[in-house]
Design goal:
Layout (H helix, E strand, L loop, with lengths): L4 H11 L5 H14 L8 E9 L6 E8 L5 E5 L6 H16 L7 H10 L7 H22 L3 H4 L8 E9 L2 H13 L4 E6 L28 H19 L4 E5 L6 H11 L6 E3 L10 H7 L4 E3 L6 H9 L5 E2 L3 H4 L2 H13 L3 E2 L9 H13 L6 E2 L5 H6 E2 L3 E3 L2 E3 L9 E2 L1 H5 L28
Parallel strand pairs: 4-5, 4-11, 5-6, 6-7, 7-8, 8-9, 9-10
Antiparallel strand pairs: 1-2, 2-3, 4-14, 12-15, 13-14
Helix pairs in contact: 1-2, 3-5, 4-5, 7-8, 8-9, 9-10
This protein binds D-gluconic acid and magnesium ion.
The site of magnesium ion (MG) has 5 residues, from loops.
Length: about 450
């Protein structure tokens, strides 16, 4: 049973009920001192900070409490639909939460989740994540501890990461990977461009004989597949056996090609192949499993428990790599980490440039407390970002280090943030992605 301040004061009164005023006053003063700041803070304001210091539209929610200097930040970054998260927070969650105490994080999460009746969409989940992570930040600040302490404390010293090596040709990818080894990384994601095509993860050089039946960027999955497999072979030969190789298919293959890709990649002994299938095709993971041992990572596009649960329970993937804010924040991600642990699945949370430093710290926090941590995707923070977000996660020798300051250990300079607003949209899409089509004009998944 939780004892609150009023109960403690009553107990002090009872123990001195014999009428001795001086001891009673002393006891009350001690209770007063021991319980100072124990009254639950109430939500006084919820605001949204938006900025674009490094090419991605970042959204952070700030909750301010009625207690002097006590506030917190949470990541709600959904860069392709950034303009929609702010009104979801300000017009729907703020009126629901104003005046509530900040100490019931789980309760507030469910209150927000249920209040739209229809749920598990990316915009709404990001809005909830902003609130959820801000509440964890506040709790950490109240306790005077980093959030990882509230989750049970460290199970490792620092967080191993992988860097993004890429290039237009095999030799460029190898050179790019070697540069990262020079900086202390042990794990590299390797991506190659496809001449003339809008591939994922690398610029593309060279010429193509193909002519598209439209004027949009184009991409042919089979060509990419052959080129990527050749590049992986070169990397294994040129980079040696010590390095861990990763590759992101970015759901660019048909289900059958995905099975073939993973089967072929088996001989390169990958750390993992990421997103070989799209969320719509998750039933095909069984076929990949039945055909090869290549480790599979999946989840950055997931928003719903209906997506991650069957893959974890069926032991159909090896790494769950959701985007924390797309799941609804730290609270659901922590539960998924524990669920995955029970099924032998490891974590590899999605950590690209379109996660704010607050979001990065939230996932590094999970990494450092989860025994089933697998690996963390690395993103560097440019100077402009660091001027806005003081306390960005630190990188040393290929490891991310969690902040030791209370909460997330991050302070946002809102004046600096205002100097880096979302860049006006040149193509009218406000950060949304345009289309990529096959040669014949069919839209493909990006
Ligand atoms: C990754 C991802 C990203 C996404 C990006 C979308 O694994 O890092 O696939 O690069 O494409 O986050 O905005
Ligand atoms: Mg990816």
């Amino acid at each position: 049973m939780a004892i609150n301040r009023r109960d403690l004061l009553k107990m002090a009164a009872a123990t001195t009920a014999c009428g001795m005023t001086a001891p009673r006053m002393r006891a009350e003063a001690q209770v007063e001192k021991a319980t100072r700041g124990m009254a639950a803070p109430k939500i006084k304001d919820i605001s949204v900070i938006e900025c674009e210091p490094a090419g991605s539209r970042l959204t952070v929610v700030k909750i301010t409490t009625d207690q002097d200097g006590l506030y917190g930040y949470g990541c709600g970054t959904f860069t392709q639909r950034a303009d929609l998260v702010k009104p979801a927070v300000e017009r729907y969650l703020k009126p629901l939460l104003m005046g509530k105490t900040t100490d019931r994080i789980e309760d507030i999460w469910w209150t927000c989740y249920d209040s739209s009746y229809w749920k598990n969409g990316p915009v709404l989940n990001n809005a909830i994540s902003g609130i959820d992570e801000a509440l964890w930040d506040i709790k950490g600040r109240q306790a005077g501890m980093p959030v990882y302490q509230l989750l049970g404390g460290k199970v490792r010293e620092a967080v191993d990461t992988y860097a993004h090596a890429d290039g237009a040709e095999d030799a460029d990818v190898v050179a790019s990977a070697k540069r990262y080894f020079g900086d202390g990384f042990r794990n590299v994601r390797v991506q190659i461009g496809v001449p003339g095509m809008a591939g994922y993860g690398s610029r593309s050089g060279g010429q193509t004989n193909y002519k598209a039946l439209h004027d949009k960027p184009f991409f042919e999955p089979a060509v990419y597949m052959r080129r990527a497999l050749k590049m992986l072979e070169t990397c294994r030969v040129e980079l040696g056996d010590e390095v861990n190789l990763l590759h992101d298919v970015h759901e660019r293959l048909s289900p059958n090609q995905a099975v073939e890709f993973c089967k072929e990649a088996e001989r390169f002994h990958m750390f993992f192949v990421e997103d070989p299938l799209s969320p719509e095709d998750i039933a095909y993971f069984r076929q990949i499993r039945d055909n090869c041992t290549t480790p599979i990572a999946m989840g950055e596009l997931f928003n719903s428990p209906h997506e991650w649960r069957p893959l974890i329970e069926g032991r159909l993937i090896d790494y769950i790599r959701c985007h924390l804010s797309q799941m609804g924040g730290l609270t659901p991600a922590h539960k998924v980490a524990i669920l995955a642990e029970n099924f032998g699945v490891k974590t590899a949370w999605h950590g690209p440039g379109d996660v704010s430093p607050v979001g990065h710290m939230a996932q590094i926090t999970l990494d450092i407390v989860s025994s089933n941590f697998g690996i963390q995707e690395y993103t560097s923070f440019n100077e402009r970002t660091k001027q806005i977000f003081h306390g960005c996660p630190e990188m040393r020798d290929g490891y991310f280090w969690v902040n030791e300051a209370p909460g997330w250990g991050i302070e946002i300079d809102e004046k600096e943030a205002a100097k880096a607003p979302f860049t006006p949209s040149k193509n009218g899409l406000n950060g949304g992605w345009g289309e990529i089509r096959r040669l014949d004009g069919t839209v493909i998944k990006q």
